[in-house]
Structure formats: C-alpha cells, structure tokens
Predict the 3D structure of the following.
Amino acid sequence: PLQFPRSPLTRRGKTMALHLARPFLPAGLPPPARRRARARAHPLSPTADARPPSFRRPYTSVLVVPTGVGAAVGGFAGDALPVARALAAVADCVISHPNVLNAAMLYWPTPNTLYVEGYALDRFAEGAWALQPVHQNKVGLVLDSGIEEELRLRHLQVADAARASLGLPVVEYAVTDAPLEIKTWFDPKCGKSTGSVGNSDSLLRAVDALVNQAGVNAVAVVARFPDDDPEDSDCYREGKGVDLLAGVEAIISHLIVKEFKIPAAHAPAVLPLPLSPSVSPRSAAEEVFMLLF
C-alpha cells in the first residue's frame, strides 16, 4: 500500500497543536488587544441604508462649466447638454446654468434639472441663497434700443411664437431708454472672453419697469452685440476658439440677478454670418440661430 510521508507537524503519531489566533511576537511585546464584538443595531434604530424612502434625502448634483474660456466640453453651443442629461439620469436633482443647458435656439428640458443663472448659482454654493423650484415663471423681455428696427421685429416675432406654440407666459416687453453699447474683447492675460456694458443703468431701469409694473419674475434680455471679426468667428465656428460673446452675456445676466434676485438669461442680436461648410458640430447650434435672424 501507498505510504504518505509523515507530516512535520506530527511527532510519534501525535499531532502538534497550531495556534493561529495570534501572530508570533518578539519577546517583550505585549499581546495585541482583543477586538470588541460589534454591537447589533437596535431594531428601533435603523441604519441609513435601512431607512424607508421617505427619510432619504434626494441626491443633488451641481454641474458647472465656466463661460467664455474655451472649455473642452461646454465651451461651444450646447455641447455640454449630453453630459447634463447623463447626470440627470443618475441624480435625483441636477442644478446647472445657461452655459450648460442652452444650445443657442435649441434646448432639452429635463424634469429634474434646475436652470439657475450663474450669479445665483455662486450665491447658492456659498450658502447665502436658497433655491425654490417653481412650476412656471412670468417672463419679461428686454430689448436693447440699439437693435435695428427690422432685427427687433424678428425677436418680437420669436417671442410671439413662443407664446402661441409653446404656451410660454412672456407677458410684456420693454425697450431700453438708451443703447446698451456692448463691447467685447479677449482678455490678453488669460484669453477668456470679456467686455463691457456701456449703459448698464438703462438695462436695470428696463428690468425694474417689468418687475414692478408688469409683475414679471424672470427676465430675458436681447442686446445688440458688435458683429464678429471674421477671424474670431471662423475660429469658434470651426470648434477651435473661444466664444467671444459669452463673457459679456454673463456680465449682463449677473447684473440683473444681483440687483433683482430673479432668473435672467441673455441672447445676442447680431447680423447673420456668411454660410460656411466647415462649421463644427459643436458650434452648429449657433447656425440655427443665424438662420432665424
């Protein structure tokens, strides 16, 4: 019969005891302390995972893409919208801002996404402001008096179309008492887009009239922007540059939200650009805007 070699753990047919409960310790060291048994949770004090759904806090996420800096995702016309939609699919609530959620004339609303202007989002992140979701806003429209008559009429027709076809409550519009005199440029130090509003007081007076006389609680602004330099616009349209208009658009909406604490969004009034076959898909939503005006 086969015979197996005797195990080194046996001596004369007797098995040596193995003590695996503690490691070998050098002489002079105290033995390790024994672990205390974990107390079982009391059945009347459930853990967070065991709490019923009514006691769970919804998971809220904030999605921010800086404006006018040439962000790889979100630096063009609505190219961050797919990211926002993906995030909204896994979060209970997503809070974001116009630079993420707007694609020029295109927009994809999601029921669990809050559209918050950038200045208000900053104050919310600081803990200074709270956000209250609403079913619908009464919208007032501000038009820059520097917009040419024909171009102004086009924008009013878009507002009429939004009221008639989408049922949006655009209740009143106001024209500024002076041209806003928008200027745009790139910051030579960092390359971001920025600019100035020459008559910001005129803008605030128009908003004040809509808020206090028409009772609006949200504002859309259309300001006449300088027509783009072909070199700047071509670079952006090809998906390579920075949006020259974005920096001043943020300045305009920040002014309104800081003063009146209501939602605000902005769209530029510009003349259509020449047709180009080399427009990047990320900038193509801007071409839809140009076709309408």
User: Anything to note?
Assistant: Residues 57-292 form one domain.
